[in-house]
Protein 1
Amino acid sequence: MTTYRARALTASAAAASLSLLLAACSGGAGTEAGARPSTEGKVTLEFWSWTDGIEAQTKVWNQRHPETQVRFVNAAGETVYQKLRAAVNAGTAPCLSKMDGMNLASFAADGLLTDITRTAAQYKERYTAPAWNAVSPGGATFGIPMGSSPQFTAYRADLFKKYGIEAPKTWDDLIAAGRKVRQQDKNVKIFNMAGEDPSTLVDLSWQAGAQWYKADGDHWTIDFTSPEALAAGDVVQRLVDDDLASNASYADPGVFKTWDLGRTIAMTTSTWQLPIYDTNFPKSKGKWQLADSPVFDTTRPRTASNFDTTAVLKGCKYPDRAAQFAAWLSSDKESLTTLTDPASKSGLFPAVDDVSPYVDKIIPTDMFNKESDSAPVIKTAASRVGDQWRYGPNYAAMYSEMQKQWGKVIKKELTVKDMLTGLQKWTVNDLNSKDIKAVAGS
Amino acid sequence: MPTLTRPPAATGSPVRRTSPRRTGRRGAYKGLLFALPFLVGFLLTYVLPIVYAFNESLHEKKGTGLGFGPTRVVFTGFANFASVLTDNAFWASMLRTLFFGAAQIAVMLGISLVLALLLDGVAARAVRFFRAGLLIPYVIPTVVSALMWLFLYSPTGSPIIDLANRAGTDIEFFGGLNTYLSLGNLLTWQGIGFNMILISASLQALPRELYEAARLDGAREWRIAWSVKVPNITGILVLTGMFSLIGRLQLFAEPLLLRQIAPESINTDFTPMMEIYDKAFKTGNYQYAAAESLVLAVVTGILAFVFYHVTNRKMS
């Protein structure tokens, strides 16, 4: 593959639009475009995952596709990503592995994945645009989307009633509601922000329409201080300043008591959590209600979502078959029907455009009161995931840097704005030190 | 280790010196053969990884294009070390660990010493019981005991906080000085028994005639403890102190686990080892982490050397 700079030169020479160029060049040598031979004969692929129910699906695939046998390896464990890295370096990596979007980006940045842009293009239409973004950081595709977890809000309807507040439509509403609650009981909070977990800010920025990383031709534009990004930061700042959020750590074994006992009365939640409401909230069963996630701009409502992917690792000999299997697993109607059934325990929510066939059965109805519009809320969330968000090549390092400062923000030792300004500078410098061109956006 | 001058062996010269030189060389050869398993292990698990880490630390990973293309690792000399030396967060974590360690080790060894002295004064049967009992925290795996304290400290599930709330007060285990007290308590709890055993063993090795002499001179038990026992076991105190100091500089699992319930108070760069772990396994910057590890090893080595020599000189 030629370097990007060379490609950019070609671009200006041909006066072609960037997106066209990216699409044309990222798949491999230009002459082979479209004519890449697919694998013939019987092959066996190894696949690492740690999602319940996937192994059974793999068996179904193997029965129907004798020419592509998939060997499933349950790779559950804290150190799975480290093991994968080691395996790629040792040349013993599986062909496919489950991976979250953030790790897919950092594996791709470290050159540990196979570029499957060309062979994967045929499956693109099956998935939502933000899901495809998650497997295509920087434009080239390195995997197939597996599932999504669009965000919405769950709140304690009984306590909302008690404090006389309604489900917030915007983040301003949420802050106003939080203040109203605080006036009545200063120990009750509207929201939670964990001290180790800046993902709250990531989600808010995604919802606000911010683009921390934006690919602009041959360089990245890094923008942590755009009006949208600062609007997201401002929400966090107000929650911190007015003591409207509890700070239960998500790693604390007792974290869910915070809501179960009514000390915090609303939270951002997603599809993957629904199957465990039963275990997490034994005391508040039937008192919950779902609502759309609060938005920044009611005319452009967006929400955020994490994506689960199936990445194709470096050294995979049959990327075409790998992509074919991964796409079947996460888009075939029958496969999705099995996997989204609570009996499979996968907790999977599809990343496909039409999720309506899969919504009803994932809702634990006895957890919610009768007024809860659970199904429409989930469908709405799936349909309004912001498609502007991208993970940059040093996202993991930036996230770790942000994590260090986030604790200070929660302790009121640092403002969100100062943190964002610092992160912008840090990210640009870090990218440039790795010979990746980046400029500050604003 | 400074010990009492024992009565010299009655008569006769040492026998081993008399063996001829020729067999000595053969002996050395044989000795090497016996030491081989150790040497091979030492080479494979210590020397090689250090050489590898040093080599890594002289490189940096660079990207191409937008950063999602192939990567290359380039030689950058001591650039990583230059960054580490000016990395405020890294040195802050080092100082934090040192100051905290100094205070915590003093308390821990103090308690261990008192307990060892008490044990030395009571009947043998009781000694066995207490020694075994106090050693239990040491026998429990670090992670298990850290988890146990984690549950006791947890702001959402702690029975201690619950009891305090019922009594109408509020306890916070983290934030400011409390963070260090909570962590110190955990480490002290883990370490008392082990250090006590070492001190206690060294006390038992003291000749009983000394006490008899002191008693004849009219010394009471506490006087014997302070003026006869303690001065004669400073060697083991220095040794345990040094081991503890090295242990503190490598502090990792306990704060990492407690971070789960106190992320605002225990940051990812709370100790040098946590920072190195974060760089290597969260950020994927092995080269920088290798440089940090080597700097930490050198600092630890220097400190251990200085500590040992200063305290040894004081004693003699």
Protein 2
Amino acid sequence: MKTKQTVAVIGATGNMGSAIAKSLSKGNYRLLLKSNKQDELDALVKEIKSRNGNADIEAAVCPVEAGWEADIIILAIPYEAEKEAAERIREVANQKIVVSIANPLNGTFDGLLTTPDTSAAEELQKLLPNSKVIKAFNTTFAADFSTPVIDGKQVDAFIAGNDEDALQIVSELVATAGFRPIIAGDLHVSRTLENMQLLLIRLGMKYNYNWLAGWKILHN
Amino acid sequence: MYESFFRNFNSKVALTAEEEALIKNYLSPKKIRKKQYLLQDGDICKNIAFIEKGALKSYSVDDNGNEHIIQFALEGWIIADLYSFLTGEPATYNIDAIEDSELVLINKAAHEELLVKFPKYETFTRLNITNAYLAMQRRLTSIISSPIEERYSNFIAIYPDIVQRVPQHMIASYMGLTPETLSRIRRRILSK
């Protein structure tokens, strides 16, 4: 797409939010970053601009303003914070793409807070019935964004959602971030994707992957 | 966020509060800053944009890089590359903002569903397209058959608000004139 899309990253100073913001700043996007930590946010915007003079990036005043201006809204916030954020952006997110990156992990990282018949993404879709919720960036660790090629292989990044156009647009985002996008299926596939990250986190803790690990589908 | 949209809608077809609430689900509020693109040629036009506040223009760019303005749109107007929107073919127009603006976007899927579910939306769309057709016919006739001075006089009579808000070089481009020619014509009209 030639027309520059505006992407709002809510929760931009978190591990994932800042990793996403940094990697997308290299693409043909206008980025609006929002965080409650204003000092960290200003520092992040400054850092991205100093690394890439062409980056079209700005700190946003509030999530509503950022969402209003955005074509795509990335909620880079924990699962527990999604409900409140969704209520704030509901009106401005109408008919827009909202990316759910959250994994609904419990406090001990050995299970999910969601029941098996749903997922964080599906719960978000219920909160934002007029938005196009897409699951993405949930099977990639923050460190993977600066190293999307691990052991010589480009990390796969799975995407799930119900709107064909929105899936394509988010695939472009994922590719810009350096990953190989794989559209996994409808939004309910998010249940599997969120469980995949639970497994990867468990394995990382057990075998000391040091948070640099990812999924790769091998096929002929 | 949708005030002007529904005022305009109600002036054409009256809606109940319930219908307004249902139609709102299909609309997307979008802010755009001055000079930002809503659409670039080559992309598919996926939205009809209603201008809630601000001003936009659509234009084509020729092989020499010159811009030819097709349409201006102020509050209460609609702008899109309708050909691309309706056929799904790549757009030949660019659309960008002349001022910081607030829009109400209606995407293709939402538009199709609204047409089926709300006969009043179909009426609203018919009136919009009729008006756009009339404006285009007037513009075409004026371009091919009216003397330049008359074209400009008509333009400022019909669209005084555009003349107030849009820079002269854009109006010149819209009229198919160089800025110098337009300023000569303006002087001539003023001295009359």
